[in-house]
Amino acid sequence: MLTAKKVKDVARKLGADLVGIASLDRFEGAPKQMDPRYINPDAKALVVIGLRIPRGTLRGIEEGTYFLSYSSQGYGSINMIYNPFILYHLTRFIEDHGYEATPIPNDYYNWPAIEYGNGKMKKNWSRPVSPDKPAPDVFIHFRIAAFCAGLGEIGYSKIFLTPEFGPRQRFACILTDAPLEPDPIYDGPKICDRCMLCAKECSANAISTKETIKVKVAGRELEWGKLDVEACTKGFQGLKPYEKYNPFLGEPSPAIIYSRAIEGARGCIRACMIHLEKEGKLKNRFVQPFRRRKAWKME
Ligand code: SF4
């Protein structure tokens, strides 16, 4: 018999650092375009797996000397290689037990027919196959999915925070018709204490300290600072008018836009992680503190 425990054990053996299971009723009230039940109306569970962003991938950015590790090993490889590997093999495991499993990678920036930005649909190259359905592709909000699977909470930064790694993980999902026991919604000690360092330390000023977004998920009120996704993207990639943050940029070139973690998640990941580690809130502990020297900041 396929149980939630068996699925979680296999996910962990395959390399998942975190795994939780959400029941689909927790998505009641979600916008049609973001409701996983439209992907498989017979699904019974959403398995959410998380892989940590190793702290050391941020070391070179912290020192101002090596940016590649985070954008490659802390970002692209997790979303494009490691999580899809686990999804594929976990899907096979579930389907070997006679249940269908739909892998949902965090790959919305490459393949979908719909492009999102600043919380809105920006481009849509598709249309619904019938009036009662959303247009393909339905977009699952991974942080909401992780919340529904009991893995932690959404911080003021809108980054998902877990008791294990704070802001350092990326998620992917499997939607299945296997009747797997859901995990309870996270009810542990509050992780985000509204210190606001994420907003203060963000070089791109992408997180509003004044405006917030409130949503109701699984009967709970969630709130985070309004995020300017375009400012965040420009801060990350160092493009106009943020090229001043890019220590590598000579001639602006389209080829460079995906290659540099310029801002290095200065507020939402580094400042937040440093704060949560200092507060002793994270289970993944290190011998040395992350910040060991005065932090650099480009003018
Ligand atoms: S930096 Fe502070 S306010 Fe921002 S998400 Fe982390 S704990 Fe919350």
Short overview:
This protein has 299 residues and is α+β, with helices and mostly antiparallel strands. Helices cover 26% and strands 19% of the residues.
Topology:
Layout: H1 4-13, E1 18-23, E2 45-52, H2 59-63, H3 68-95, E3 101-104, E4 114-117, E5 120-124, H4 142-148, E6 153-154, E7 160-161, E8 169-176, H5 197-201, E9 207-217, E10 220-227, H6 229-237, H7 266-278
Antiparallel strand pairs: 1-2, 2-8, 3-8, 4-5, 6-7, 9-10
Bound molecules: iron/sulfur cluster.
Iron/sulfur cluster binds next to α5 and α7.
How would you portray this structure in words?
With 299 residues, this protein is α+β, with helices and mostly antiparallel strands. It has one domain (4-278). The chain has seven helices and ten strands. The strands form four sheets. The protein has a four-stranded antiparallel beta sheet with strand order 1-2-8-3, with helices on both faces. The longest helix is centred in the first third of the chain and has 28 residues, at 68-95. It is globular, with a radius of gyration of 19 Å. The protein binds iron/sulfur cluster. Iron/sulfur cluster is lined by residues 155-157, 192-198, 271-272, 275.
